[in-house]
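Dear colleague,

Thank you for sharing your sequence with our group. We've completed the structure prediction you requested, and as agreed, I am returning the results in plain text so they can be pasted directly into your records. Please verify that the sequence below matches your submission; if there's any discrepancy, let me know and we will rerun it promptly.
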Amino acid sequence: MAVKDRSLFALSWPLVVTFGIGMVLPMLDSWFLSRRSIEAAAGVGALMPVMGTLFMAIQAFAQAGASIASQFLGGDKPRHAQVTQTLVITGSAFVGLIMGIVLWFLSPHLVVWMGLSGEAAEAALKFLHTMSPFVVFRALQGTLTSLVATHGYTLWNLAANALTLVVNTALNFVFLEGMFGIPEFMQGVYGVATATGFSWIISTITLWVIVVYSLEHKTHLKDIKRGYMVLLPEWLRIGVPAAIEPVSFQLFQVFVMALFARLGDVPMAARVFAGAFALCAVVLSVGLGSGSQILVAHLVGNREFDKASRRMHQSLVWSCLSALLVAVAVAFFGSHLLSFYTDSAEIIKLGCALLWCDVALQPFKAANIVITNALRASGDSAFPAVYGTISMWTLGLGTTLFLCFGLELGAIGLWLGMASDEFYRSIVNYMRWHRGKWKTKGVMAK
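Please find the predicted structure tokens below.
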């Protein structure tokens, strides 16, 4: 069955689990480190927004290339798709290599910028220096995952990423317990970082085997030259905006987190703990949005615009509804869930209130993810990136500050402010989709 004729559920459920695994891995590293040192775990944990921003940019860029390949596949141009895949793989490897080198040299400065000191700073620096050489494999892992999903093999993605989780867990035990004669200096930050790095390598090799044998991909040097001359402009046109928007979003989240910190320890703790459970709905939305992106790209490539629009709307309804239901369930059991983190009545009370505020946020966040992914899949990535960034730092920020400090709603105002940002962007992005400009943006329309 052609990818464009697959059901949304069949494509998306492995992606939901795959993204869930990706979120668990950083938490797993922190848990293993906390067994050795709380300070070390805190230092490494503080770096996660920085690492997440880098990886999100790489992933968005890779998905843009994968969407181009999807359009060619949908338009029955497998040769063009193969050239695009070669371009994306080599380009991502180059970007990952450069980012790894930059990360190595910037590590001391990043530690200072994050305000870390003492054992936490030392652990963060060790972690960054150890992880830097592995960044190229993380970039390739994300790229190959996108390309495999483009062909509809989302179950293979799930298997490869599950292998990452198993390898990471096993190696963490080996390093931290000093098994097989592991030297003492590896029984801490170095060991945890190395375990993660090697899990990326093994996952990358597994995905590469899938790409070569299941997708029957062949890399030719002439394809690289041809790809960069013919397809690079299209990749940059779609990929650069696609990478900018999530980076801007991450920076906005960092800014909002700083506002929570300004309100005090209780609001900050409530934000962190409630945010951990709020991610349950986000994983579902991202998985459905990615499945929708694959379907829309194939349909746009085949110029089946009406069907692409129906698929987008189907994904929109299911994503918003499921996000709402999950958010309500999490909020309903909020006090029990938050008790896993703390026994502070004050933190639990505020955290529960924030989770109920999250019920208002998640449907619009889900809508934003689905519509933005659909626009990117069709080649219209510049609009959500430009408007999203402007709206985020004007309407979104203004509403957030007004609710928090103007109406003196405090932490609740900050969470509702984040919901308003998602609302503004989802409405305008939907209007963009409804007007149909995206029909002229695909590579098959050139």
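Summary note from our side: Residues 59 and 142 are 6 Å apart (CA to CA).

Kind regards,
the structure core
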